[in-house]
Write a structure and sequence with these properties.
It is a multi-pass membrane protein. By secondary structure, the protein is mainly alpha-helical. About 85% of the residues lie in helices and about 0% in strands.
Length: about 230
């Protein structure tokens, strides 16, 4: 093969050339995977900021909560503070407000139960905020390889059809559709692998934060329980 022919063959197998001249089905699959990849990376960066903020907010709140002082003073400091009134801070405010609202209206034990329910609702809202869009990330991680596999199968089918039409298996006949198939496979993995790693990481962080919220709720409930005899009429 002369150098000119080799240069033309190399150009025809370049990534840009293969994508530009791929079949409509493969191009459609690559566009879908590109959109999925962009969406997953957008969610990943958003969640990195959200979970980092949630961890820092928890650290700041716990430092303030366990530094001592009256509950009313802590509530005044936390309430309305955007850096503290999220996560555990929001759970604390919900429980404290409900306890103060009910303590003189119902039995102390019932006021504790009401405060606990209010904290549970605040916890569920915070977990829901952290969980937002994680399902989409999971979908990208699980579906993208199969979408890429569809492109792989289509490319291989095209290669066999080209062989049947040409009645011979030459590099020019087989290489382009096979390369398209491999590109579709790689695109599916490129979209799925980061989404899978990020999803698992975020789920681990979510479980850890949720556990810390549970621990704080138990600790704060015990603190309120110790105050019940003092607040009972």
């Amino acid at each position: 093969m002369d150098p000119h022919t080799m240069a033309n063959a190399a150009q025809s197998l370049s990534l840009a050339h293969l994508v530009a001249n791929a079949s409509g089905v493969v191009q459609g699959i690559l566009i879908i995977l590109l959109i999925a990849s962009v969406a997953s990376w957008t969610i990943i960066f958003q969640k990195l900021a959200i979970f980092t903020g949630a961890r820092k907010a928890l650290e700041r709140f716990e430092k303030r909560f366990w530094s001592g002082g009256e509950m009313s003073q802590i509530y005044q400091h936390v309430s309305g503070n955007s850096q503290l009134e999220t996560g555990a801070g929001g759970i604390f405010c919900a429980g404290y407000e409900e306890f103060q609202r009910q303590r003189n209206k119902i039995r102390p034990s019932d006021a504790l139960d009401a405060a606990r329910r209010a904290m549970r609702v605040a916890q569920m809202r915070e977990v829901g905020r952290l969980e937002n869009n994680l399902a989409l990330l999971a979908s990208v991680s699980s579906v993208s390889p199969f979408i890429g596999l569809l492109g792989t199968v289509w490319g291989i089918m095209t290669a066999f059809m080209n062989i049947g039409i040409a009645q011979q298996a030459t590099l020019a006949t087989v290489a382009p559709p096979v390369a398209e198939a491999l590109i579709a496979t790689a695109a599916g993995l490129f979209a799925a692998i980061p989404a899978t790693l990020a999803y698992n990481r975020f789920i681990h962080q979510l479980d850890k934060l949720d556990g810390q919220y549970e621990v704080f709720m138990d600790e704060f409930t015990n603190i309120l329980h110790r105050q019940v005899p003092e607040t009972t009429p």
